Each structure stands twice: as structure tokens, then as C-alpha cells.
Amino acid sequence: MERAREHDSTGGPDQPARRPGETGTALELLVHGVGGTTPQEMLNDPRTVRITGDDIAAVFRRADDVDAERSPDDRRRDGPVPEAYVWCNLTSGNGTRALWLLLLPFMVVNLAHWMRPSARGHRRTVRLYGLLVRLTGLTLTVLLVAAACEVALDLAAWQCAGTRACADRHSWLGFLSPTVSDGGWWNSPGRRLALASFVPTALTVLLWYLSRRTWSDYESQQPPTRDPEPDEDGGGSTALGRPGFWYGRRLVARLRAAHTAAGLVTVAAAVAGAAARHDREPGGPAVLNILGLLLEAALAACAVAVVWVVCRRGRSERRIDRELDERFVRRLPLAALVLLALALLYAGWERPGWESAGRLPGDATFGGLAAVQGLLVIVLAGVAYALHRTDPDRRAVLRGLGGPAVAMLACALGGVMSGGVSQRVSDWLDGTGTSIDGPPVLLTWQASVIPPLIVVLLVLFGWLAHRAWQLARAEREAVARDYPDEAQDRARTRRIAYTRAMASLTDRGPRIVAVTSGVTLLLGAGALVGALTTDETPGEAAQGTYPVVHGAAETAQALGSWLIGLGFILFVTWGRRAYKDAAARRTIGILWDVGTFWPRAAHPFAPPCYAERAVPDLTWRIATWTRVTGGRLVISGHSQGSVLAAAAAWQLAPSTRKRVALLTYGSPLERLYGRWFPAHFGPAALGSLHREVDCWRNLYRLTDPIGGPVRLPGNHDLGVDHVPLQDPLSYGRNDMHPLPAPILGHSDYQADPAFAEERRKLLARLRPDLPAPRHTAEQPCPGPEAEPQSNSGRSSA
After folding, report:
1. How high is the pLDDT of residue 717?
2. Phi and psi torsions of 272, nearest 5°
3. Cis ω on the peptide bond leading into residue 728 (within 30° of 0)?
4. Which of 136, 214, 259, 322 has the most CB atoms less than 10 A away?
5. Closest CA to 200 of 236, 153, 158
6. Side-chain-side CA neighbours of residue 609 (13 Å)
7. Where are the beta strands (DSSP E) in 355-470?
8. What sign for the dihedral angle of Cα 777, 781, 785, 790?
């Protein structure tokens, strides 16, 4: 059942209020966290009504509360009317979400764009940071398409179809083989490459289609428009408050055109490069040689145009930019498609005596991509460190180097995925291991460094386990202090202490990322040097050395190949399961909930940003409801929902923002977002949010691995953070809890009496008509001095 009618709402969300009468209604707008939930669970009622929205994201109420603003029943005013905003289908909807696994490296590099350190007055350096990340994202697109070319063009069409022993084992390649087909029309190497090029071309078209479809569903959502107020500074201390922040339609369209053209140019270069190299040999046809040179020059010019489009200015956030760069969005991919067609025609021309032998020319592509990616990451690290020094933030991860570290992991992830596919296809085609040369040497070297990397990770996880054991021992005394009147149970105490210790390990995540990224960079550089200097696999290069070295190289090479194969099989299996199983799809959706909060500013093929739909939804709902009813509103956000709530609050007009209160619980606003994204959720941004909303309270537990305190800078007489909530609520059995109370961790914050008490205080502070004076003696913002329960007062490290 749906209720689409709003309460006499007309015009925009921030036009002058038109109130039919002061009702005094209080509203609690609930926003769920990662993983999603149902409106029935959020509202604790099986009978719910959709007030506004669609099947993707909507606002729900209990059936009895649909007309709460109009009801004359004064008893409704004793407590807030709960209203649930459900957005989980934005990330875990239908089965096509399983295809997003293919886009994982693109999502990770897009995160690196938003991890830049905070800086003021250094626009050129900030733009250089964004430019470097966009170029890194472009190399990932080329790497993925090049891997598809390696599989289809080199391994299948060039090597296997050109080798009788391999073609005999795979009858489906027989019509391409010069020997099996008895001189058929397709036996020419150029025609085989032209036919096989449809595989990477189809992959590029698929990426374009996914990006185009999600772009029309997400980036094309119109945000609310309004006139700036006199006291508004155009975004304040964070860019999340700027009018055009959640409307990246123009940039994504431009980048999509550039990346699509880059993929098509990569395929054209792979096809035409082999034919052009043959034509340049002594005795080759002069006309075809000239045509090949002209075609390669045109491909180079198109590649330069692609890089130029990517290097252009990034996002327009200070205004809602509804324009599109039609010349680039349409003409650039079309030009690349025409060049691809010319390359196929050129390669398919008859060339008597041309035979395929060895690997397809162009193996240096993977080496060049690896070198460029490493150089970009190193320069990005220098730029990030320079930005961090201009405005140091002691809570920022890795001293501002979180973005470069994550960009390095994105490159490594792309390399593993592309190399894994090549290795598995090569093993499948070459059953004996002797009929074809296999993938480029660099991919074998990259596979061989995976076992040493796993050893490093095992050492790190061993250190984490030891650290957790130490923390658990230290927490036992703290648990005893938090429950002083309870008879101590050693097993119960150990369990609570262990849960707290495991939750605190989240704060050690930056060390894991730093070590993994650094080791990956060093091992990748070693693999690149080894491949270029020896042009042999690690096992072949180690022949003649010490037996221990040769054995280690052979073991690493074999084990790395199997590990890549296992990872590829698990990847495909997980994707297939997610396509059929809604529960598995929701698990993947949790990953997207965290990774796709940010707009696609660095890579257009990344999974879409759900916040570009969710944040305007919340902004519209909050602004229109407060304007029409004049009631009191508390935004109640759990986990990732608290991040959406904060983003929506920043988007409100200052006059509206002062009319609402914010209640967050299990919130990663500072613990994760503030540390990893300091430019947008740093101390200055969170401090401004505290000053600009009417009041803000934050609840957290020491057993919560995600949520934590906000830790606002400066001296705040009436702070945001509640003391840590007790978890479990009861240590042992008593009259209120005759059965053992569970350790709740990150879930079910509403079960704690402090939740209802803090909500009551926030509503008491708000006024039905005008916002109350801030921090007055009559209606103070709830502070530590007024807490209903005691605790040790410790905060998670």
C-alpha cells in the first residue's frame, strides 16, 4: 500500500513556509545502515505504508501514523512519529548487481580520489591530486581491456589457433587454424585477430552500457535548488554542503566517453599493431606499410585526445552544472569506433606468407602500464604529503597518504584480476604446457610475487592476533570496573573483553593498508625489473643459481599461478551465487554501501554513487516537512545512515539546518570517514556540523567495530559524544534481565534506555516554531553531566 500524497506541500523545499496550523508534531526520521533492512523492522510494526518514493528508495510510516500531522489525537505528541527512509535497494537490488564485482578495482581507485588531505588555499595542488587519480583510473581501464585482448587475441587467436597441437585439442578453434581448416578464409593471422577482437570490444561496450544505464538512474537525479541565504558561505568547512556536490552528471559523462574511447583504441592498437609490424619487415608491401603508419598515427592522436579529456578540469561543485560536453561525449567514442573498424579492415587484408609465431607483438604493453601506474602512485604520494603538511591533521591515516596507498591497492587488484584470467585461460588452452608460449612474462612474474605478499599478510594478521590477545587481557580489569556490583564470571568477562579488543582492531587498519601497499609496490617493481631484464619466467631466470633460489622461484611461480586460479574461481563463483541468491547479493551490497558512497569522480565505470539519490531524497524530505508543518525533527542515523544524515544536513539551508537535531549511533563519521577522508569529514567539517544543527548527540559502544566517538576539536562545554554505552546491558541475570543479555556490538542501539532518553532530550530542546537558543540554561544540549548511566568513560583507541 502506498501513500504518495504529501501534506499540502507546494513549491520547492526552501520556499517560505506555509503552515496550515501549528500541530506540535515531532518526527524521527530513521536512516538505516549497511546491509539494509525492511521498513517493518525499522518501525517495529508489520503494517507499514509508503509515504513517498519508489521501489528503489522510499519513506515509510506505520499505518496508524500516516496522517499524524492532521490527527487531533494529542496523545501522538507525547513521542515522535517514526518515519523510515529505506535505501538498501540502491546497492543490493536485482541480480545485475553481481556484475559490479567486475568493477571492484575501479571502485577502489575512485575512493582514492576522495581520500586527499585537507588543504586550504592550494587549489592547483588539489587539482593535481585529482588529475593523478583520474589518470590512474584510466590506466586501469586500459589494463582490463588489454587483459581481454591478451586472452582473445594473443592466447586464443594468435597462439592456439596458429599451433596445430593446440587447435587439435580445441575443435571450436579449428576453422581459424591454417592447418586444421585446410587454408580456410579465416586462417590469416590478421583475420583471426579481427574476429577475436569482438571479445574485448564487447567488454568495452558492456562497461559503457553499465555506466550509461546507472548514470541515467543515479547521476541524473535532480538535486533540490534554492537561493542562497545571506549568512551562507557556499559550502562552509566541507565541500559536501555545496549545491553541486551530489550532481556529477557532466563529469561522469565526459569520463565515460574518454574511457570508452580508450578501450576501443586499445583493441584497435592490438589488432593493427601486429599487422603494421609485419608490413614494416623488409620486402613488405609499401602501400600497406604507409596505411599502417597512418593508422598508428591516428590511434596515437586519439589516445592523446583521450588523455586530454581526462586531464580537463574535474567536478563543478559550487553550482548545479546541467550542461553536457556533447563534442566529447558523442564524438570521441565514435571516432575511436571508426578507427577500430579501419584497424579491422587493415588487419584483414590478404598478406601471403604471414604466419603467427610466438607471442603476439605488443607484450610491452603490460610492462608499460605497470611502470606508469607505479610512477603515478609515487607522484601522488608526494602531492598528498605536500597537502598534508599545509594543514596537518593528526587523526588522518598515514599522514595524508591514505589515498596513494589505496590507489596502489587498486592497481594491484587490477593486475591480479587481469593476470589471473590470462593464466587460467593459458592453462586451459595449453593442456600439456608445451604447445604455446603462454601469457607475457610480466604476468608470470606478477603471479610469482603473490606468495611472498601472502607471507607478509600472514605475519600482519599474526601481529593483530597477538595485539588482540594483549588488549583482551588489559580489558578484563576495565570490564570489572564497569560492572562493580556484579558477581564476576571469568568466562563472561573474557568474552566481553575479547569483543572490545576485536572492535578496537579497526583502528589498526591503516597499518595493514600501509604495509600491504608498500610491499605491493616493492614486489611489483621487482617483478617489472625481473621481467624486463631477463625476458624469462622466474623459474627459467633462476636456472644456474643456487638450488635454494631456483627452488624458491619455481615454487613461487607454481603457487602463484594456482593462487590466482583459485581466486579467479572464487570470484566467478561468488558472482554467480550473488546473481541467484538475494542473501549473497546483500552481502556484496554491504561492500558497495561503503565503497559507493562517493560520486564517480575518478572512474566512470565504478559502481554508481547511491548517495546522489539518497542525499537529495533526505534533503527534500527534511526541508519540506519542517517547512509545511513547523514541527520538530530528529534525524536518527545508524552506521552508514549517520553519514547520509550528516551529508543531508550539510545540504540544507542554514535556516532549516538550525531547526533539526541529529542523533547518530554506531556512527563511523570520525572513526572511518574522518580519518580516511579528512578533506570532507575532518575536524573542521564535523565541528561546523555541530555548530550549525540545533543539537547533535552521538552514541557508541566499546564493543562496536564500526561506530565510535566524534572527538570534536576544541573545548565544548556541552559535547556531542555520550559516554560509551554499556554492552551488554546486564552483566548477569537480574530482575530486569532474567536471561543472559547479549553483546550487541554494532546492532540494536534502540534497545539501550539511553537511546530513548537522548532522543527525548533532543525533542525537548527543539521548538515547534523557532529553534531554541543554543546551549541555554533552560534547555541545554544534552551533555556528559546529564547522563542517565555511568561508565568507565573510556573511548576506543
Report:
1. 41
2. -75, -30
3. yes
4. 259
5. 153
6. 26
7. none
8. positive
